[in-house]
């Protein structure tokens, strides 16, 4: 990729739009408002909410709807267009939203910032932060791993830090913590709307925010001040009663829910929790549940604001935020009804599209896996299932922590059973790893003696980073690739090969307490609720039910100064240097626009069977180092996909019958100017917000993807990069298409020209026989998205505006 002289672009048009946006940020919320006693964030929310009530009247709204609609750029346009005068918003309206902030982790921030740089703006339109958490390999322990990670990735960290300085972004250095934990501790306040360049960003829903995982192009839209578009989600209600007890934890609630809904059950929905059981949960417990909403495909998840939420704000030294939230909920709006007040809960009488009721008192621990987060088994049945399925009975490792489960409550509950085992003379039989979610958590656990309990037991405390959860794990136990083995983790995702690159490692998801107890047993068939272990002196030991503290008795320790956030005003003189010879970073070249006709001459590169996740399309682990270099990372495209016609992994065949890896063949076809498509099954692109899973195929020559269904984030990412996502009208048509077939679109160009209106078909010419088939397909392309595709990508439109 050639270097681009960004300074030569004038950026007049976008700069004017940006200046107008900045002016609105300063004056817009006060122009027609008499509000004088609310902080700016809540003043803006108050005024927008008043508009929502004016447009929708007394219509009952869920909490998610209240926050989401109160962030619309134009309330009337979004809520009244094609919605039966506001009565049928869910699933129909195209919401154009103005988020409050954007949060980016280091792996995805590279491409997001490279795209933002192309717009040639002096600063972002809204606050944003960068979190260096994905690139540290977990291996020997925190200090050694962090030092090695900084040395290996200094070029990327320097790039991100310089970009933060130039554009005025918050910068969290390597070792400061995992993005979702850091956001919960520092930025999340009730009523906020945030975008995060990671699928588990909804973690902040535990603090009653609307936080949505997106790709980098989506983030750039928000960063330049453009409205961000979202099809109005339906709302799935989960009503909680009772109270968790003994071994049951918040993690078990979402593991159980994943089993009920499957990895596709939440697609197109926001999951909203309510009911008296909510009041019994900690803020961090609610965050755990929201975090793993990504595993059921939900747009996001949210809880009401509770007394536990206020306590968490206070313990994280944000007393004023708690006071502001209380003031806002009691601040009157227009009219005399209860609707004039914005309450961080659903309106009385609000209706959900679906409702699930769960009694927490009856919930037992669950273990999910292997290879998919929705294969849920109650702990009481897990031993029998392991034996029936012939899964490994030996446990190789237990790993706790991560962004999902590293709260003070999680860790003190684990500490209670570790201390009991220590007193009985027991040590873990399996390797035991602990990942603190942030420096604040690490420092507080160290201050209060919890980390010392883990280390005394033989636990290895890793860096405050994603580590093994995202595939950054260098195992020390001699387990080689191809060796079937079992691990238990308190992580959120367990796709095949995700953690250690070994396709035969089975990762079972559970609460930190269950993971720890089973690590002591060294067995996947051990049930800590009913079974006993034998101590060195021959006695029987049974773990006591875990107990812990919701939060520390004194506020959290902020930790070492080196890990504090670097906040700064934009510095236009800061130079962002990217070496032309860099193997880690490369400036972007624009993708070619859509041709002024239907597509023709496409060939099916590969027909994929089974799961095709974002890990399948663009693997993480060692490939994370190339996140800022599109040509290099494209060498992993679809490299763990299963060829539906041969059942081979990462194998594709050229038109002459020669055998290649999938990325090798894609590269060959790119060099031959042969455009291509992929045919796949359900939930294509399941998993992370990884926009590289859209960028890489686009770079290599993909023009359409056709499958039975898409995961939400990935479908959006494809459209943002100019790839057209299509689904079969008749799922059995999947069987009619094969690798090497020639495909032409019918009606696609006209549909795009008409702003997403119109039907599309595929004309398939069978390889070998020349037989022609006409296959109807569906699309979900909006007017704005049609514009992105025609332009070649969303970035092309933004950068075009910058050059006018």
Automatic annotation (TrEMBL):
Protein family (similarity comment): Belongs to the aconitase/IPM isomerase family.
Subcellular location: Mitochondrion
Keywords: Iron, Iron-sulfur, Lyase, Metal-binding, Mitochondrion, Transit peptide
Protein name: Aconitate hydratase, mitochondrial
Cofactor detail note: Binds 1 [4Fe-4S] cluster per subunit.
Enzyme Commission numbers on file: 4.2.1.-
A GO BP entry: tricarboxylic acid cycle
Main location: mitochondrion
Domain (Aconitase A/isopropylmalate dehydratase small subunit swivel) ranges: 603-730
Aconitase/3-isopropylmalate dehydratase large subunit alpha/beta/alpha domain: residues covered: 89-522
Alphabetical list of SUPFAM superfamilies matching this protein: Aconitase iron-sulfur domain (SSF53732), LeuD/IlvD-like (SSF52016)
Top EC class, one word: lyase
PANTHER family: ACONITATE HYDRATASE B, HOMOCITRATE DEHYDRATASE, MITOCHONDRIAL
Gene Ontology MF, one: 4 iron, 4 sulfur cluster binding
Pfam families: Aconitase, Aconitase_C
Organism per entry: Apiosordaria backusii
Cofactor(s) demanded: [4Fe-4S] cluster
GO cellular component: cytosol; mitochondrion
């Amino acid at each position: 990729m050639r270097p681009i002289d960004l300074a030569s672009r004038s950026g007049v048009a976008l700069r004017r739009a940006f200046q107008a946006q900045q002016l609105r940020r300063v004056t817009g919320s006060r122009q027609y408002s008499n509000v004088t006693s609310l902080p700016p964030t809540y003043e803006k929310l108050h005024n927008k909410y008043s508009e929502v009530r004016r447009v929708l009247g007394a219509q009952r709204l869920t909490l998610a709807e209240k926050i989401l609609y109160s962030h619309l750029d134009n309330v009337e346009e979004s809520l009244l267009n094609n919605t039966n005068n506001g009565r049928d918003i869910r699933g129909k309206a195209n919401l154009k939203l103005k988020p409050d902030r954007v949060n980016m982790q280091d792996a995805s921030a590279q491409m997001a910032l490279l795209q933002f740089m192309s717009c040639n703006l002096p600063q972002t339109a809204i606050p944003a932060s960068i979190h260096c958490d994905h690139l540290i390999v977990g291996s020997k322990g925190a200090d050694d791993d962090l030092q090695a990670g900084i040395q290996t990735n200094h070029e990327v960290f320097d790039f991100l830090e310089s970009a933060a300085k130039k554009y005025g972004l918050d910068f969290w250095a390597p070792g400061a913590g995992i993005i979702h934990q850091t956001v919960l501790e520092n930025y999340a306040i009730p009523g906020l709307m945030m975008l995060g360049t990671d699928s588990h960003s909804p973690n902040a829903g535990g603090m009653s925010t609307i936080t949505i995982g997106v790709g980098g192009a989506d983030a750039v839209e928000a960063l330049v001040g453009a409205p961000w578009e979202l099809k109005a989600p339906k709302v799935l209600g989960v009503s909680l009663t009772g109270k968790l007890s003994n071994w049951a934890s918040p993690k078990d609630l979402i593991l159980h829910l994943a089993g009920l809904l499957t990895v596709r059950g939440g697609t197109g929905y926001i999951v909203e929790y309510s009911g008296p059981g909510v009041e019994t949960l900690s803020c961090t417990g609610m965050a755990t549940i929201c975090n793993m909403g990504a595993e059921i495909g939900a747009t996001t998840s949210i809880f009401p604001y509770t007394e536990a939420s206020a306590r968490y704000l206070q313990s994280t030294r944000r007393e004023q935020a708690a006071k502001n939230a209380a003031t806002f909920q009691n601040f009157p709006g227009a009219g005399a009804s209860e609707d004039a007040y914005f309450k961080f809960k659903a309106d009385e009488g609000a209706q959900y599209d679906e409702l699930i009721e769960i009694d927490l008192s009856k919930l037992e621990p669950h273990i999910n896996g292997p290879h998919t987060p929705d294969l849920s088994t109650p702990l009481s049945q897990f031993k029998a299932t392991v034996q029936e399925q012939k899964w490994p009975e030996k446990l190789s490792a237990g790993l706790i922590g991560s962004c999902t489960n590293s709260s003070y409550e999680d860790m003190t509950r684990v500490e209670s059973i570790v201390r009991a085992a220590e007193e009985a003379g027991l040590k873990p039989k399996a390797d035991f790893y602990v990942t603190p979610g942030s420096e604040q958590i690490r420092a507080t656990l160290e201050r209060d003696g919890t980390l010392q309990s883990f280390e005394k037991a033989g636990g290895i405390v890793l860096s405050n980073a994603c580590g093994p959860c995202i595939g950054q794990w260098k195992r020390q136990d001699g387990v080689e690739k191809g060796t079937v083995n079992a691990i238990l983790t308190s992580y959120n995702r367990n796709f095949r090969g995700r953690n250690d690159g070994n396709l035969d490692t089975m990762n079972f998801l559970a609460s930190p307490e269950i993971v720890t107890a089973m690590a002591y047993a060294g067995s996947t068939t051990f049930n800590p609720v009913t079974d006993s272990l034998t101590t060195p002196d021959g006695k029987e030991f049974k773990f006591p039910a875990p107990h812990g503290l919701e939060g520390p008795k004194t506020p959290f320790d902020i930790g070492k100064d080196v890990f504090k956030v670097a906040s700064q005003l934009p510095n236009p003189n800061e130079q962002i240097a990217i070496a032309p010879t860099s193997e880690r970073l490369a400036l972007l070249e624009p993708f070619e626009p859509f041709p002024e006709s239907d597509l023709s001459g496409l060939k099916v590169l590969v027909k994929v069977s089974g799961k095709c996740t974002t890990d399948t399309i663009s693997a993480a682990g060692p490939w994370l180092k190339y996140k800022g270099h599109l040509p290099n990372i494209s060498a992993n495209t679809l490299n763990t996909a299963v060829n539906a016609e041969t059942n081979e992994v990462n194998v594709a065949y050229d038109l002459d019958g020669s055998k290649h890896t999938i990325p090798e063949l894609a590269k060959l076809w790119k060099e031959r100017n042969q455009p291509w498509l992929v045919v796949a099954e359900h939930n294509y692109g399941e998993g992370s917000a990884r926009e590289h899973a859209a960028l890489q195929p686009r770079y290599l020559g993909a023009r359409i993807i056709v499958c039975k269904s898409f995961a939400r984030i990935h479908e959006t990412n494809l459209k943002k990069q100019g790839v057209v996502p299509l689904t079969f009208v008749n799922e059995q048509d999947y069987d009619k298409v094969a690798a090497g077939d020639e495909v032409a679109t019918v009606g696609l160009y006209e549909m795009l020209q008409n702003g997403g209106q119109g039907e599309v078909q595929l004309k398939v010419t069978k390889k070998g026989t020349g037989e022609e088939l006409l296959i109807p397909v569906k699309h979900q392309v909006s007017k704005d998205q049609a514009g992105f595709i025609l332009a070649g990508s969303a970035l092309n439109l933004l950068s075009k505006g910058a050059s006018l």
